[in-house]
Amino acid sequence: MNSHTNTSPFITQVVERYSCKHRTYCRTMPLSELLARLVHLKMVALGVVPYEFYPATLSLQFSRSLLVYCFIIAIISPLGRCCVFLTTFFTMKLGISVVRYTAMFRELLDAILLVVPPCYLLCQHAKVKQLFELSVEVYRSSLSLGIFPFWQWFRTCLLCSLVYDSVYGVNVAFNLVLPSAGIHAKYVQILLWSVLSQLTKSVVLLIIYGSAQYLLRMVDHLKDHLEAGRLSTNPVYQEQIRQQHHGPAGYLMFYEQLAKVCETLNDLIGVPLITYFLMALIHLTFVCYLILTKLLVRWSYITWQAILIAGIAIASYVIDLLCLMRIVGTFARTREESLKTQKLLLRLNLSPMDHKLKQSIEVFALQTLHQPIEFTACRMFTLDYTVLFSIAAAVTNYLIILIQFEMAIEQ
């Protein structure tokens, strides 16, 4: 039996299918390396990644001095904004109001919630490095080396991050430009402190979204390989298929690497995503409550600038929530593609085949059942689109409670 002379037809099909992608990858790699360096510099400067990055070897080097710097950046920005807000709140003596004390409560929660995700990732820096190394190991696998659409993945992640940063930048710009009566100096300080903390949040979301997109594309890649395969009664061909499933660089090993990436990513994403979903819930509840109380109680004092700023604030919070849901949607799609891989294996197992090949496919199918690629938030709930409906229900409930309090105080 000569495996070199009896090359299976579907291998040739897969190689031809991805040869064009490989040439595109080689042409765009220098630009991708430059952009990767810039993104890494942004992650370090904003206090999230305490590593030195070496693109030539795709490796990270931990730096204790960078870790200290990252902790300082991650903590100082939210606390600085909170201190400016609280000093302004207590010195202005605005009196008792549900709106004012709700704003103070929201600001205190924001300071805590903005600190938690980056500090959590910094405390788990060894696991972050492990996730990177596992991803590089998957990338260097014989099933994906030179074929993975690196530039498309990088462009998708970078575009999402730029949209998120641009929306918040537009919000800050309108808050600085639109007020006609002038801007309080303390308010400008709050906005400036907010920019740094929001950029840090953007980097954390970029890491999570990039990891989710990477895993999704790898699972798609594995599914494409399985779909391209065609079974035959030829014993030589079936032995080649068995080696591709159960060999040292086969589908079984590749899926095991993906399952390790999924497990490590699950350990990292739970706390940041729960924190940011809680922030989105608080922000949407507060801004909707503020607008409703203004409309119901003080309609005659509302200016068009205030209406426009409120609309922009709602739009930015909704886009913030939609970015989170895009991340959750990526996790849900990855799970769906993984389930399709299971169905493909079960369908192959029904075909007439050699006993050894049948046993290899059964082992692979059992592994996909015992090591499912799915994502949870600290194992409390599955990350899917039902999270959006839960947030909408919570915002409605809290709005009703706050408006009832406001109406009682006004009476």
From TrEMBL:
Keywords: Cell membrane, Membrane, Receptor, Transducer, Transmembrane, Transmembrane helix. This is Gustatory receptor. The keyword Phosphoprotein does not apply. It comes from Anopheles coluzzii. Belongs to the insect chemoreceptor superfamily. Gustatory receptor (GR) family. Its main location: membrane. It is a multi-pass membrane protein. Gustatory receptor which mediates acceptance or avoidance behavior, depending on its substrates. GO terms for biological process: chemosensory behavior; male courtship behavior; sensory perception of taste; signal transduction. One of its GO terms (cellular component) is plasma membrane. It is found in: Cell membrane.
